[in-house]
Structures
1.
Amino acid sequence: MAILEVKNLSIQFGGLHAVDNFNIQINQGELYGLIGPNGAGKTTVFNLLTGVYKPTEGIIKLDGVDITGKNPIEINKAGVARTFQNIRLFKDMTVLDNVKAGLHNNYKYSTFTGVFRLPKYFKVEKQMNEKAMELLKVFGLDAFADYLAGNLPYGEQRKLEIARALATEPKLLLLDEPAAGMNPNETQELMDMIRFVRDHFNMTILLIEHDMKLVGGICEELTVLNFGQVLCQGKTAQVLKDPAVITAYLGE
Ligand SMILES: Nc1ncnc2c1ncn2[C@@H]1O[C@H](COP(=O)(O)OP(=O)(O)OP(=O)(O)O)[C@@H](O)[C@H]1O
């Protein structure tokens, strides 16, 4: 079943066709990679999928529902969560509160209940603490729950960003260069973790990545973008062998 279905998606900035007639279909539970040279349009695709940019043309469907042109909050509520190339945590908040911030889509109390500390406030807060700790455990971050997010080592901050995104209970998780800035050991650990997230949550994941070891190691399907257009699409092993991909991207 298709979780994400994108047809003829395009956006222009002035005369630049940053994304041009982009099509993709991602099925439930798939681990899908979006690759391409610098400036190919990958992050722009993420910005279109999350409502940061409105497309000039095209349709985006999430789990059969048309989300084209909706704003980022509506799209997150509909079930798309993302992480960023440059980590964007609430660095002055605790690790636990970062995850709790993601939970607010699904755990609610009124301002009145919060201000006057009514019983529902304590009940919902307890549920949120438990859920957040559960997520932190999955990522081996539970021991750091009280630390300020900004004090975590870099690799752990990346994990926390993924935990916070998952707290919104998405149908589709977008990871923008999750291995950026990581050493080979951290990258290996991240690969295992992404696989685990897919298996444990039956999550559908689309990731942008330049690290070919990671892409070849965990992605089942790939789309290669070049100058805003799809150059090649299909099973990872086949795509990485495609002569056009090797010439345009791998530079061999
Ligand atoms: N808001 C914008 N206004 C004008 N041009 C933009 C805007 N956003 C992106 N672009 C242009 O669109 C093109 C695609 O950029 P994008 O960041 O999507 O590429 P990318 O494939 O993610 O690259 P990288 O791998 O370097 O992150 C680039 O030429 C970029 O300069």
2.
Amino acid sequence: MTDTLARRIDGKAFAAGLRARLAAEIPSLGFQPGLAVVLVGEDPASQVYVRNKAQQTVEVGMRSFEHKLPAETTEAEVLALVATLNADPAVDGILVQLPLPKHIDADKVLLTIDPAKDVDGFHPVNAGRLATGANALVPCTPLGCLMLLQDLHGSLAGMEAVIVGRSNIVGKPMAQLLLKADCTVTIAHSRSRDLPALCRRADILVAAVGRPEMIRGDWIKPGATVIDVGINRLPPDASGKSRLVGDVAFAEAETVAGAITPVPGGVGPMTIACLLHNTVTAAKARRGV
Ligand SMILES: Nc1nc2c(c(=O)[nH]1)N[C@@H](CN(C=O)c1ccc(C(=O)N[C@@H](CCC(=O)O)C(=O)O)cc1)CN2
């Protein structure tokens, strides 16, 4: 524990700055990039995220195409919609909001998206490009984490990074990005031996496990930078209020860490800002700009 509290990394402000830079760039492109977002079903959190995506897309000066489909939509219908969007010249980016209803195979849907329009960066072609160091569309959440880290530290070369979580959406691409930035990278997970000791090695600790407040203060190396990707809504307390917490026990962690992302207001807002960034990247690449 240290006398001073960790610096709070303000993802909300950084995301606003990124959106402002995109809004300034878009009029000079000579064309208007378009983003199509597909939502299947009525998951309340997904509805909010999709609404925010559409609103922010328009705010930065791009075209937004929203496709809201009922929960009983068949897999074949979703695949047909993706095929139509692949062929639509006004659409530069396609995002299918996750999670999908259980009767739809998400991997099959993601595989159908044209890799050049895959602004989520989830298609195996983009995952492979990222892994081999080629130009790729990079998953938005880890890209946002990298931007925050580089803004804070400049070069990350030589730093010891530990990522807790091995998902295709966050853990694995985060590891590739940090490796590319010359960090020494460990991916830890639920079966890792002595997780607290592994975490204590980290100059950069990325928590992406989806378990509320699992990473405790005494798992953190004094002065480390902690990036909390978790967004967990706790059940309502006695007063009826529900609270959003990360995968890190924030009150403990901020007495040990050097810098930390809060939840909310840390990594979350970067996800949508990076989606807009990826759409502009995809739009330029499709036109050879
Ligand atoms: N196709 C995708 N599906 C999902 C992704 C994704 O990147 N692509 N990520 C998440 C959800 N998500 C965007 O889709 C997302 C999550 C959280 C936030 C955010 O700004 N969170 C706020 C808090 C919001 C709240 O109050 O609930 C914060 O952390 O400050 C934005 C986007 C799963 N699906």
